[in-house]
Design goal:
The chain is an alpha/beta fold. The chain contains eight helices and seven strands, in the order H-H-E-H-E-H-E-E-H-E-H-H-H-E-E.
């Protein structure tokens, strides 16, 4: 039997932690993640998108935040069906299930035709792609000419003392607390490992350029803990 792929590991992991994902996401970030999403939505507001694709949507937090812009439609895709089930329940409770559709979908094989969306967003998902450049090129493919891509992702703080404090928190506190609350021994060890391996900052901007995107820029958040990358087709 062959070893599972990264994609299979990620899907099973998020299926397993889906009941506690939202709580842990906000708890372990001290609620700062809400502000990061608001910042992305504010940046997207200037584009006034008619339709938005939210890739790796998870339980739909970013899609729900984007709903405040009143686009014509929002579609969220994710490989974890159990995360999507949690998201659909949230949409129904908020009365947003007519505006937002969540469906199973792979970021590296997006189930839409070329030039389908005015904007594409991702929050804390690109580092989970099995092949980063394949996923980014797929996102570019379904983006309309002149459309924008906004990517919110963890990055690597470089300034003292945030670099040292964040290193301790991510390597020791997050895995222990995540394991205690979620019951999954691997998921919250994977988080800091995946962040450490991700090519953040200028390295990621260069990858966006290499994938055919234009005018790529980075907005640093919370002293470098996270970043919003914006690029155009």
């Amino acid at each position: 039997m062959s070893d599972p792929t990264k994609k299979e590991i990620v899907r099973e992991m998020f299926d397993d932690i889906s009941p506690r994902y939202d709580f842990l996401n906000h708890f372990l970030s001290f609620g700062i993640d809400h502000g990061w999403r608001k910042k992305l939505v504010k940046m997207l507001a200037g584009v006034k998108p008619g339709d938005v694709l939210d890739v790796a949507t998870g339980t739909g937090d970013l899609a729900i935040a984007i709903a405040s812009l009143k686009p014509m439609k929002i579609v969220g895709i994710d490989i974890s069906e159990k995360m999507l089930e949690v998201g659909r329940a949230k949409l129904a409770a908020k009365g947003l299930d007519n505006l937002i559709t969540l469906r199973r979908g792979d970021a590296e094989k997006i189930p839409f035709s070329d030039n389908s969306f005015h904007a594409i967003t991702v929050a804390f998902g690109v580092r989970n792609f099995e092949n980063l450049e394949v996923g980014l090129k797929e996102m570019r493919r379904v983006l309309r000419p002149g459309g924008v891509m906004l990517i919110l992702e963890f990055s690597h703080p470089s300034a003292f003392p945030m670099r040292q404090l964040y290193g301790i928190y991510s390597r020791f506190v997050i895995p222990v607390m995540g394991r205690m609350i979620s019951g999954n021994s691997k998921a919250y060890s994977y988080l800091p490992e995946s962040v450490a391996a991700f090519p953040s900052g200028k390295n990621f901007l260069d990858i966006l350029d290499n994938c055919g995107l234009k005018n790529a820029s980075r907005t640093s958040l919370s002293m470098g803990i996270a970043s919003i990358y914006m690029a155009e087709k």
